[in-house]
Amino acid sequence: MNGELKELKLTINGKPYELKVKPQALLVDVLRKNLRLTGTKQGCLTSSCGACTIVIDGKAVKSCSILALQANGHEVTTIEGLADGDKLHPIQEAFIEHGAVECGFCTPGRVMSAKALLDENPNPTREEIREAMQSNLCADEGYVKYIEAVEIVVKKTQGGS
Amino acid sequence: MSKYSVIGTRVHRVDGPEKVTGNAKYTFDLVLPGMLYGKVLRSPHPHAKILKIDTRKAKRLIGVKAVITGKDTLGRKQGIWRRFPELCDEEILCREKVRYIGDPVAAVAAIDEDTAEEALDLIEVEYEPLPAVFDPLEAIKEEAPQVHDGVELNINVTRHIEWGDVDEAFKKCDHIREDQYKLCSQAHVCMETHDAVVSYDYGGKMTVWTSTQSSYYIQRLMADMTGLREGDIRVIKPTTGGGFGSKFELDSAQFCAAILSMKLCKPVKIVLNREEEFTATKRRTPMYYFLKLGAKKDGTLLAKEVRVITEGGAYTAMGATALYLTGFFSSFPYKYPNYRFDGYRAYTNTATTSAMRGFGAPQSTFVGESQLDMMAEDLGIDPIEIRRKNGMTPNYEVPGQAYIQSCGLHQCLDKIDAHIKERGKLPPNHGIGVSAYGFMSGGIFNWFDTPYAFSAAIVRINIDGKVDLFTGACEIGQGSDTTLSMICAEELGVKLEDIRIHAADTGICPVDLGAWGSRTTLMNGNAVKMAAADAKRQLLEFAAAKMGPNIVYDFDIKDQWIHLADRPERGISYFDIVKEAIRGKDGETIIGRGHYTPHRKGMISPAYSFGVQAAEVAVDPETGRYKLVNVTTAHESGTVINPVGIEGQLEGAIMMAGGYGYCEDQPMDEGKILNPSIADYKLIRSLDMPETEILEIDTYEPEGPFGAKEAGEGLTNPTAGAIGNAVYKAVGVRINDLPITPEKVLRALKEKQKKSK
After folding, report:
1. How many domains does chain B have?
2. Is A148 touching B (CB cutoff 8 A)?
3. Which of A139, B193, B468, B690 could lock B277 by a disulfide, CB 3.0 to 4.6 Å apart?
4. H helices within B585-642, ranges in order?
C-alpha cells in the first residue's frame, strides 16, 4: 500500500526543498507531518472547509485537495512564510487590529485566501472579497470582521501607494 | 475621562498574534517523542448485541502496538449528571451492546495513522442486530425496543416546572392557541475536531492534552472511568478550535487514548475525522413541542402550557440539562402569571443529543416567538406591542424559579421598533420578523456534584510587576483569555500587557466548571476580580505604610500608579511598591485568591441578558428560495468588558443561528446520518451572510464583575424565530418544522394557493 517513495522538489516560503514522499501523500500531510509546518490546518479532507488553504504560484489552493507530487516544481507559500521575522504581514496585522480572530483554527487558511486575492487583485470590491472567501468555512466568527479586515488592508495599501 | 482604563476599550486579542501566524498550538498539532496514533472502531448497527470481538489479526499487523475493547476497561459508565448514578449510562467502549451507529467497540494504537486505520479493518466483530427505535414519539410506546434495560418506556429524564394555576387561568382567557412544532438537530461543526494526546507514565501519572470546554470535567470523568485519583490526572487544554457545547464530556478520543496509553506507557494521539465528528459526537437536541397559550383581548398573556418530548439519542450526556433549560426558557422573556412545563427525554438508537450553543433556548425561542406572533395577529395587536405588554422588567421574580435583576428588554424593543420604522415600506415579498429572547449567565445547578467553587482564580505579582493570572476558564475561541485579562488589569490598575494568563491546566490552575451556559464572564470574571482585589489590597498596605497619609484616605491603583483615591496626583509607581512589598514579605511573591459560587440567586442563573432581533428576508415565491437581507439585534449584556469580542460573538451567532433556522439539519435513515461531511451538511458561508447591525443597550448587572453579564449563547436564540416570522410577513406562510428550507416554503405556498382557489 505504501509504494515506492518518490522524489519531490519544490519551493516553500522561498526555500528550495528536496524530499522523498509516498506517491499517495497529500500535500497537507507532507507540509504538516514531514516538514512540521503545522500552521496549515486541516478540518475535513474533502476540500470543503478551507482550513488547509495555501498559495501555489499565486493561487489559493486547498492543500488537502492535491497530492504532494502535484506540487513538484512549484512555488508554495504557507502561513509560516508571511511574517518577516517578527514583523507581521499587513493582512495578519489587520486581522488582529480588527478582531477578525476567534478560535483561530480557520485563520491561517483565511489569511492565505486573502493573500492570494490581494496579490492578484489589490483593489477588490466587498463582493469580490466575499466571493474569494466563500470556500473558507468558519464556525464562530460569522465572516463579517474577516471581510472588513481585508477591506482595511486594501484601504491601507492604497493610502500608501 | 472614562471610569475604566481597560474595560470597554477596543483591545487586540491576547492570542491574536499566535493565531494569525499559524503558530498557536492546538492539540491537533501536538507531537510527543515516541507518540503512537490511535483509531476507534465503531458500530455499523443502530442497536445490536456484541457477541464476539476478535482482535488477533489486528494485533499481528506490523506497526500495531495495542488493541483494546470494552474488556480492557473497568466497565464503568460516565455521565455529566453524576449526582444520579442511573443517568451515568455511557461506557464509551461498549462491552455488551451498541446503541447507535458510531458507538465505539474497539480502538487501536499503531506507529502511524495509516497502520491504525488498516488494523481497524482486521478487527472482527460479531453482532446480533436488535430491533431499533429512532423517533422519540415511537420510543415512548409500550411495544418499542428498549434502548437501556430497565428504563420504562425509554424515558430517560422527566422535568416538571409549574407556577400559578394554569387550568383556572385558561378559563379566564379570551383567546387560546394550540400549536405544534418539530425541531431539527444541528451539528456543532467545530473547525478542530475532537482530539486528544494522552500520556500515562510508569509512575502512574496521566497527562491529557485535549480540545475541551472543561479541563476539570475531563479530569474528574477520566478519574471516574479509569480508577485513577483526580490528582494523578493532569488535563491541559492547548489552543482550542471551537466547542459550542460539544466538548465538555469525556469523549471517545480522550478515553480510548487514555486506555491505550495506560497499556503501553507511551503517549497516544487520537484525532476524530470529520465523519466521526458528525456521526459519533453529540449534537443539538431535536424536540417535539406542544404549546398552549392563552391571552386576554388586550394581549395580556395569562397562561402557557408546554409539553416537550426530546430525542435523547443513546445516552444522557448534557441532554437532561437541555430538557430542563428548554422548559425554563419557554417562559422567556415574558411575565407569565401561570405556567406549566412537562418535558420528557426519550432514549433512541441515534447519536446522543446534548448541549449546543443556546442549550435548549434556541428551540424554545423559535416556537415561543412564532406562536406569539400568531397570537398577536389573532388579536389584531402589533408584534412589538404584545412583547412590550408582557416583557420582563428589572427586578422581576419568575415565581419560585429565578430572580432577574438587570433587564433591558424594553429598551431593546424600542430600538428595534425604531429600526423597523426606519426601514420604511419594503419591496414586495420582503418581510421583517422580530424575536425577543433572554439567556442566563451560567447555571446554578450542580448535577455534576463538584465540591469545589464554581470558579476560582489566582493572581501572582512578580518582582518586575508582571502579573500571572491562573484560571480554569477555557478559551475556546469566544475570547475568555482576553476578557479575563482585561478584568484582572482593570481591578489591579495595571495595563493589559502586564497580564499573562495561564488557563485550563488542572495541574496549575484552580478548578472551574468550564465554558458552557455562558458562565465565563460573570462567574470567572467575579473570581478574577476578587483575586486581583486581594493582591491589590496587599500592595496598598505597603503603599499606605510607605506614604503614611492621614488614616482617613483611601488608596487606589490606576494605570500602574498607586495613589490616594481622592488625590490622584499624590502617589507612587506600582512597580516600586511591588519591589518593596516582595522584599518586605521576606521574598514571597504577592498572591491574590478569588472564587465565586452563586448563592441565593434562585435555581437557574445569577443573571440574565436580553435582546430583540429583527430579521429581514426576501422570498422568491416562484422557487421558495429566500435571502437573509438584514439582521439587526438590540442587545444588552450589562457592562461591556470587551466590545470587539461581543461584536464577533454576535456576528458568529447569526451565522450559527441563521443556519439553524435556514439550512442546517441532520436527516437520518434508520439511525444513519445521511450528510456526515462539510460538503453535504449545509452551513452559512460568507456569500449567504446578511448585513448585520448591533444596537447596544446600556445596563448594569449588580451580580456581575463591573456590571457585566452573558454575551455568548443568548445571541443564538432569536434568529430562527425572527426568520420564521419574517417569511410569514413576506409571503404569508408558516413553517412549523425547522429548518425553514426553500422546499418547505414552496410547498406551503402551493398549499396556500390551492386553498385560496
Report:
1. 3
2. no
3. B193
4. none
Residues 6+ apart with CB under 8 A from A120: A58
Check CB contact under 8 Å for B677 and A133.
no
Task: Flag whether pLDDT at B34 surpasses 90.
Answer: yes
B147, part of any domain:
no
Same-domain pairing of A29 and A75: yes
Per the domain annotation, does A1 fall within a domain?
no
The alpha helices in B397-524, defined as continuous H runs, are 409-423, 480-492
Q: Are residues A72 and A121 in the same domain?
A: no
Rg (C-alpha) for chain A, rounded Å, is 16
Does residue A51 lie within any of the structural domains? yes
> Is the ipTM of this structure higher than 0.95?
yes
> Of A59, A81, A103, which residue constitutes the final position of a domain?
A81
Long-range Cβ contact pairs of B537-540 (< 8 A, separation 24 or more)? B537/B592, B538/B581, B538/B590, B538/B592, B539/B461, B539/B574, B539/B577, B539/B578, B539/B581, B539/B590
CA B596, CA B526: separation in Å to the nearest integer? 6
CB pairs under 8 A between A and B: 176
Average pLDDT over residues A137-151: 87
What average pLDDT score do residues B301-305 get? 98
For the record, the C-alpha cell of B436 comes out as 425577543
Q: Which residues contact A147 (CB under 8 A, 6 or more apart)?
A: A126, A129, A130, A133, B686
DSSP letters, B679-733, are: TTS----GGGPPEEEEEE-----TTSGGGB---SSGGGSSHHHHHHHHHHHHHS-
| CATH number assigned to the domain comprising residue A24 | 3.10.20.30
Q: What is the pLDDT of residues A92-108, one digit of tens each?
A: 999 999 999 999 999 99
Q: How far is CA B594 from CA B121, B187, B440, B584, B645, in A?
A: 52, 36, 22, 23, 24
A 10 A CB-CB count for B106 gives: 25
Please determine, for residue B1, whether its predicted confidence score (pLDDT) is greater than 60.
no
CA–CA separation, B19 and A83 (whole Å):
12
Q: Work out the average pLDDT over B155-159.
A: 98
Total structural domains within chain A = 2
Whether residues B242 and A82 touch (CB distance < 8 A) is answered with: no
Residues 17-36 of A with CB under 8 A from B: 32, 36
Q: Can you give the CATH number for the domain in which B490 is found?
A: 3.30.365.10
User: A79: which residues sit within 8 A by CB, 6+ positions away?
Assistant: A39, A40, A54, A108, A111, A112, B21, B22
pLDDT at A161: 46
Domain check: are B65 and B195 in the same one?
A: yes
CA B730 to chain centre: 32
Amino acid at residue number B572: I
Integer Cα distance of B689 and B683 in angstroms: 11
Boundary (domain end) residue, out of A64, A81, A98: A81
Please indicate, yes or no, whether residues B568 and B611 belong to a single structural domain of this protein.
no
pTM of the model: 0.97
CA distance A8 to chain B (A): 21
Beta bridge partners, B339, equal B163, B304
On whether both B260 and B351 belong to a single domain, the answer is no
The three three-digit cell numbers of residue B61, written as one number: 499487523
Q: Which of B22, B114, B686 sits opposite A147 (nearest CB)?
A: B686
Classify burial at B756, counting beta carbons within 10 Å of its beta carbon; exposed 0-12, middle 13-18, buried 19 or more.
exposed
Domain span holding position A110: 90-157
Which residues in chain B have their CB less than 8 angstroms from residue A100's CB?
648
For B350, half-sphere exposure in the C-beta direction (CA atoms, 13 angstrom radius) is: 31
Domain boundary among B539, B571, B596: B596
CA dihedral of residues B216, B221, B223, B225 (deg, nearest 10): -170
A105 and A66 inside one domain: no
Domain that residue B343 falls in = 287-444+602-756
Boundary-marking domain end, from B570, B596, B622: B596
Quick one: B364 and B486 in the same domain? no
